[in-house]
């Protein structure tokens, strides 16, 4: 069935955010994961060029570093805004619980509750592909020092993701080092926060040692994203 999958990995250079377009070649039904407001016209053009019908935009969480394009795409294309059930937003068309699925064409993508970076963080699984947002990144993990962050929840969520096969391809919401994807097997070995079967205590020590400035757009992005980015 994967031969019938259209897959595109797109990037917003300013925020280093990856947006993922997935569609069924036969039915032309599509979904878009983590769209960015400034890239709405790019995304609309690509969807039009490929002759697709956008059914859903899926958010991995309420972002603090950019404004989502979900609301504007809903206005323009009639797509539905989807977030995880752990969020507190009321703008979503649907809040997915653990294990719930969305269908597009012959494909079904499944929600996985992965709190830790935020309470509402949700990863998505489709046929050997994991879209992990700001939870599991490439050789790193998302920060836990603001916006309902929790080291305990993050540790549990990462181990939940590590229960998938080593060959599972991981597509994060961001990368700042020029990488595009990784695998569960690689992250089990090489992730600098939790790789090598790190204990919860070691993981927590490493997380507490992080000293990061707040995202530049946090005061604008979070309120806007609580409204699905509609402007």
**CATH architecture classification name:** 4-Layer Sandwich
Q: What is the count of β-strands?
A: 12
CATH superfamily: Ribonuclease Z/Hydroxyacylglutathione hydrolase-like
Q: Helical proportion?
A: 10-25%
Shape: globular
Q: Mean pLDDT, rounded to whole units?
A: 95
Any idea of the CATH topology?
Metallo-beta-lactamase, Chain A
| Number of spatially distinct domains | 1
Tell me what portion of residues adopts beta-strand conformation. 25-35%
In angstroms, what separates the terminal alpha carbons? Answer: 38 Å
Q: What Rg do the Cα atoms give?
A: 17 Å
Question: What's the SSE pattern?
Answer: EEEHEHEEEEEEHEEHHH
CATH class: Alpha Beta
How many helices does DSSP assign?
A: 6
């Amino acid at each position: 069935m994967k031969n019938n999958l259209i897959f595109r990995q797109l990037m917003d250079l300013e925020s280093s955010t990856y947006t993922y377009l997935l569609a069924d070649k036969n039915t032309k039904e599509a979904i878009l994961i983590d769209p960015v407001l400034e890239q709405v016209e790019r995304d609309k053009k690509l969807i039009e060029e490929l002759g697709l019908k956008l059914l859903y935009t899926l958010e991995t969480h309420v972002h603090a570093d950019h404004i989502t394009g979900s609301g504007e795409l809903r206005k323009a294309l009639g797509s539905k805004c989807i977030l995880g059930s752990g969020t507190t937003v009321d703008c979503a068309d649907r809040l997915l619980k653990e294990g719930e699925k969305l269908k597009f064409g012959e494909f079904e993508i499944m929600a996985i509750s992965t709190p830790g970076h935020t309470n509402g963080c949700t990863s998505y699984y489709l046929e050997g592909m994991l879209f992990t947002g700001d939870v599991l990144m490439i050789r790193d993990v998302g920060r836990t020092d603001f916006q309902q962050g929790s080291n305990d929840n993050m540790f549990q969520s990462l181990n939940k993701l590590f229960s998938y096969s080593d060959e599972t391809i991981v597509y994060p919401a961001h990368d700042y080092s020029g990488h595009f994807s990784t695998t569960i097997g690689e992250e089990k070995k090489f992730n600098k926060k939790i790789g090598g079967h790190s204990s919860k205590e070691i993981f927590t020590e490493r997380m507490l040692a992080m000293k990061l400035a707040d995202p530049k757009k946090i005061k604008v992005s979070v309120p806007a994203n609580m409204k699905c980015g509609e402007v």
